[in-house]
Amino acid sequence: MSGTDGGEPLLEVRELCKYFSEGGGMLGGVTFDREFPFLKRQRGDVRAVESVSFDIEKGETLGLVGESGCGKSTLARTVLRLLEPTSGSVYFKGEDLASLSGEPLRRKRKDMQMIFQDPQSSLDPRMKVGPIVEEPMKAHGMLDEEGREARAKELLEKVGLDPQHYNRYPHAFSGGQRQRVNLARALSVNPDFIVCDEPVSALDVSIQAQVLNTMRDLQEEFDLTYLFIAHDLSVIRHISDRVAVMYLGQMVEIADKEELFENPQHPYTRALLDAIPVPDPRSGGRTALLTGDVPSPIDPPSGCRFRTRCPSLIRPAEYDMTDAEWANVVEFQRAVKRRSFETTNRAAVRQRHFADAEPGGEAGTLLDEAIGHVAAGEWEEAERLLTESFADRSVCATEEPAYEVSPTHGESRHYAACHLVRDDAVAAGEETELASSVGERFAGSADVGEADD
Amino acid sequence: MSEPLLSVENLKTQFFTEDGTVRAVDGISFDVHEGEIVGLVGESGAGKSVATSSLLRLVESPGEIVGGEITFKGRTLFGLEEDASGELRPRDDMLSEEEMRREIRGREIAIIFQDPMESLNPVFTVGGQLREFIELNRDLSEKEAKREAIDMLREVGIPAPETRYDEYPHQFSGGMRQRVLIAMALACQPDLIIADEPTTALDVTVEGQILEMVKELQTKYDTSFIWVTHDMSVVAEICDRVNVMYLGEIIEHATVDDLFYDTKHPYTRALLDSMPRPDETVHELNPIEGVMPEAIDPPAGCRFHSRCPDAREVCREVHPEPRDLADEGEPTHRAACVKYDAFDVGYDESRPIEGDAAGGFGAGLTRTGGEE
Ligand SMILES: Nc1ncnc2c1ncn2[C@@H]1O[C@H](COP(=O)(O)OP(=O)(O)OP(=O)(O)O)[C@@H](O)[C@H]1O
Ligand SMILES: Nc1ncnc2c1ncn2[C@@H]1O[C@H](COP(=O)(O)OP(=O)(O)O)[C@@H](O)[C@H]1O
Ligand code: SF4
Ligand code: SF4
Ligand SMILES: [Mg+2]
Ligand SMILES: [Mg+2]
After folding, report:
1. Cβ contact A174–B207 (<8 Å)
2. For the whole model, what pTM was predicted?
3. Do B277 and A275 touch (CB under 8 A)?
4. Which residues from B are below 8 Å from A339, CB to CB?
5. Looking at the domain covering A9-26+41-274, what would its CATH class be?
6. 10-residue averages of pLDDT along chain B (372 residues)
7. Which of A349, A354, A373, B147 could covalently link to A378 via disulfide, CB atoms 3.0 to 4.6 Å apart?
8. How do the domains of chain A map onto residue ranges?
9. What sign results for the dihedral spanned by CA atoms A77, A79, A80, A81?
10. Cβ contacts of B44 on chain A, cutoff 8 Å
11. Are A213 and A225 in contact (CB under 8 A)?
């Protein structure tokens, strides 16, 4: 089941980018940055999906997880070419979808179906369930009327509904049942590949389990391949063979399910895992929560996009300081960025941020200057000094990470976009690409991201 | 134990619709003590939101509270009595609508809704709304209220509160808006905050931050909470005691530890068993068969009998009221299930119900049908 190197990829996605041009869409002309200076009038695209590469093998389920707005739905739609990609390629059964259009693309679409997040709005309330299920067959000229009806009834039964429900309207169904109708419709044209965009997120847990079990059974019976999107890691752990973690438009980690949950390498994956609540009052709750918000996809951080929130940001080589000192510097810099000070006199700031470890030397001098700015209420100067002297000098800001490490669970390749693994990496940059058959490459680790903040 | 802060007795709220009477809340009783977080958990449609809006008498037509008693700090928020002709009418000591609005809502009991956009006005700045709320409810000058508003924003973790004070709700992320609502709820230092699924729409990362913050604020101000959720993990994380609702009724009540480690009601058990786990790989999930029936015409007997794996014939006939099943000296643990000896209605001798629980095709089609 799990994607080993020997398997044959059904879908190969290479360097896929999807930008939304500014002005259209929900963001309009003005954007509100979550960090200072909050309001930016800028031109630029929403870089919703950037340089994403992955494979999905025949018969497997790739789980795709990430926070709201990170680009999961956009990626899914771009893969299916419901959205036109900005650049990059998608190979389905070896054929580049980007090179197809018109009738050939339409025919190809029959093999690739999608189930949407909201079972309510994805079914036409004026149509009966039978015709809803038959619709894709009709569109692709499959079977005659009688044949379609017979197949629709058979499929309703397969997804756990009563074939008698053929003549009912969607409103008479519960959320879980509507999602089953969606499944039947997707299955009607006998696809190989189904993209499921949060198919159970809107359902109660008790119903979620029913639908997830049905999806698994159908996968086995029809040899289906799933790209399964969810923001709930418990659901992802249940349904996936491999898991891809997305942050701010990019893949940060891809690995076998067991490997990802038991041996996560990327600090963002770890933070997500730590944030999952465990249904057990004796578990002691979630640990070490992420702070700050996701930055704007219009002007994402250079290098590693997670660096503005990363708890493990790498110390710039030029400064000589202990880990504790560096941690305090990072914490202080982020506090200045958030302006989260109740008192700003020098002694109080020192006490709050550097009581246990204060760097000396050049770093110490720079910090002293920054603390002076804070005490004088010169926030912008303090922020600029700290950013330029520390944050921007980290390798995390200057180089885009892309590595592959050897897995301790399963045999699938383990991709981790974090410089922390560079010493353990079995491959980096050029060699890191997941499958060589298509010849596209991951961004090399030597690529210097534009220093744009 | 001391007098509860809030006590609810046999509360019933119904909606009078064309299709019939929806018995959304059908005789629930629970209480909240000072400084406690009490959970109200159940799947969607169980009646959680109707129950919480009933507490503040915010149920709108065609809905109506038709019975029961709600007491808060010795005052009667709701109570009926029979008049000479046997008609029910509000008791004399029941607070007037005016008193509810001026003295209770917002000041003594605050409520936080699931969708923060519904509670924030999009055309006014976040700070302005918070300031006005404080000004009105705490008799502070505009200037003092503004200072207080900024302090509250900082307190709930809004970065750069002085700047953000002048921004509009749409400029805030979902998590930040929910923080603002929490700030608003806390602003009048109420004794009780009712939170109706305030984190359900948020990512776990943000949910974690907010729950963490609520726990801190709760310790600091000793505020009591009623925390409404459908998520057992949130219950485990934040609640002291829990009430589990099914189809308008509270079917189990226990301390959070007992609820998870000494689960009594088959519905609670099934709910816990149906969840995928983040911390281990489970191969086959155990769903609860079927769906919750409609509240218009709830099943006779135990309302869970159509889905219960332990259901027997007697469950169709006897309607169990929650009973305390705890041992002497142990904290209260109520459950409404006739399989326990305390009910003594012949469960052991009764025949298992066959086929019903298996659900099959028809399980849980909503009763409105829709066949044309
Ligand atoms: N049509 C559009 N125009 C402009 N920006 C868009 C458009 N569609 C999406 N975006 C932006 O692209 C980014 C990714 O959005 P997307 O809907 O793919 O996220 P998602 O991961 O599916 O989120 P969720 O978990 O909330 O469904 C967001 O910043 C979003 O605001
Ligand atoms: N305005 C209304 N009119 C008719 N029925 C309603 C109304 N509001 C809620 N109900 C019904 O009351 C029951 C409980 O609903 P609710 O309290 O919203 O559930 P929960 O919050 O637990 O998801 C459901 O059967 C619902 O359909
Ligand atoms: S590359 Fe740097 S900032 Fe990015 S996750 Fe790794 S340590 Fe953190
Ligand atoms: S009373 Fe009967 S049907 Fe109801 S929960 Fe108990 S065993 Fe199940
Ligand atoms: Mg989405
Ligand atoms: Mg509700």
Report:
1. no
2. 0.84
3. no
4. 159-160, 162-163
5. alpha beta
6. 90 93 96 96 90 95 95 96 89 95 92 79 92 87 93 84 89 84 88 90 82 88 94 93 97 98 96 83 80 86 95 96 95 97 95 61 39 38
7. A373
8. 9-26+41-274, 323-393
9. positive
10. 204
11. no
